[in-house]
Amino acid sequence: MTEFINAIDKWLAQYPLLNENIKFFGILLLALSVYVVTRMICLKYVAKLVRKTSVDWDEIILNEGLLKRISCIPPILVLRQFIHLLPDALTSIGKILDSVVVLLILLIIGSLIDSVIRLIERIPRFRDRPVKGYIQIVKIIVYIFGGILIIGILTAKEIWTLITGLGALTAIIILIFKDTILSFVASLQISSYDLVKEGDWIEVPKYGADGDVIDIALHTVKVQNWDKTITVIPTYKLIEESFKNWRGMQETGGRRIARSIYIDLSSVKFLDDDLYERLSRINSLSEYLKNKKQEIDEYNNKHHVDVTVPVNGRRLTNLGTFRAYLKEYLKRREDLNTNLTFLVRHLSPGPTGLPIEIYVFAGTTRWADYEDIQSDIFDHIFAVVPHFELRIFQNPTGNDFKALAYGRKREEPETGKET
């Protein structure tokens, strides 16, 4: 290539009277021809060759953007080689051309770094690590030195002189790159303590984020919310602010169900013979009631309790029997994980009644399946409560007041009084 260019240079030197404008357009035409040939070789033949290979890593590295940038360098080198033949007014663009070459090289290096990131993210070992942030630091450093080199070319100053001069601007540089420095430190902490990985479900209430992490970069963490919107959070904010990571739940394979029903306290009572007989016919309660009654009878006989008075000794209650039924019912469900925390408990009573909390874990972490399991459980609970002669607390509704009013009207003819 160099010999060809020298030959053309000697040939043009033999015609000193050749119009400078013709030289100018001739050089432009030569540069354009080189660009067309280079682009055709890069985008047609090289790309076609890459697609034919059995591996796909070469397609990631030699992507279309990289090949386009490479094809731009040869025509600029041609212009730079023949710049002395151009009119004096145009010879000063040599520095600009040199700067453009450096800029293209920087863009090529940036494209290669992006390709490396994509390749590393495909390796299972690094898939859950925020490697992208570290490599982007390298990319920023390359761009900074490239920018210094371009400034040195345009100002005709030594690069080391510029770098030395930057020392006096350290405070300004730190201020400009404050977020980058903070994000880099945050990335180190996130990686070291394994706080967040791609695919984790996180909640960051301050930023309205509630969904899966889809990207962890140097400056930002992208979260795809359940409504499919995207929330972008500065990386260092994850260290500064509190957030919830649901990865533990996902790895455990069970999702917590913690919901209460509120029992009307006025419906709690001791079991009488009739209710005991009816509840004994429930398969999951028959053994429990039999054993419990035997235990209570033995205790009362041992302590000579006067069982004619209900408050003496020990007795079965409809609420305690109801809790025992719930435990047995939940244990028999195959869609619950009984190896995790399993509770049916009282909470503190209040104006809305006595809360009976179901604290168990579904055997799946899929949202839709989890909601179906939870709904099925409480559908059943609401339906069986009346069988224990218990009532679920509920504030009076319009129908309650209407029934009360109708009840009074029916009493009016008997009393002969108006209300």
Keywords:
419 residues; alpha+beta; SH3 type barrels; Alpha-Beta Plaits; five-stranded antiparallel β-sheet; three-stranded antiparallel β-sheet; 11% strand; disordered C terminus
Explain this structure to me?
The chain has 419 residues and is an alpha+beta fold. The protein folds into 3 domains: 2-192, no CATH class; 201-247, SH3 type barrels (Roll); 255-398, Alpha-Beta Plaits. It has 17 helices and 8 strands. The strands form 2 sheets. The protein has a 5-stranded antiparallel β-sheet, with no helix packed on it. α4 packs antiparallel against α5. It is rod-shaped and about 130 Å long. It starts with a helix and ends with a helix. The relative contact order is 0.06.
Which secondary-structure class do the elements indicate? alpha+beta
Q: How much helicity do the residues have?
A: 55-70%
Rg calculated over all Cα atoms = 40 Å
Tell me, rounded to a whole number, the average pLDDT.
80
* Spatial separation of the terminal alpha carbons: 113 Å
Low-confidence stretches: 410-419
What's the layout of helices and strands?
Blueprint: H1 2-13, H2 20-52, H3 57-61, H4 64-81, H5 94-121, H6 124-127, H7 131-155, H8 159-166, H9 170-176, H10 178-192, E1 201-204, E2 209-216, E3 220-225, E4 230-234, H11 237-240, E5 244-245, H12 247-252, E6 255-263, H13 273-280, H14 283-302, H15 318-331, E7 343-346, E8 354-362, H16 367-384, H17 398-415
Antiparallel strand pairs: 1-2, 1-5, 2-3, 3-4, 6-8, 7-8
Give the gist of this structure.
The protein is α+β, with helices and mostly antiparallel strands. It has 17 helices and 8 strands.
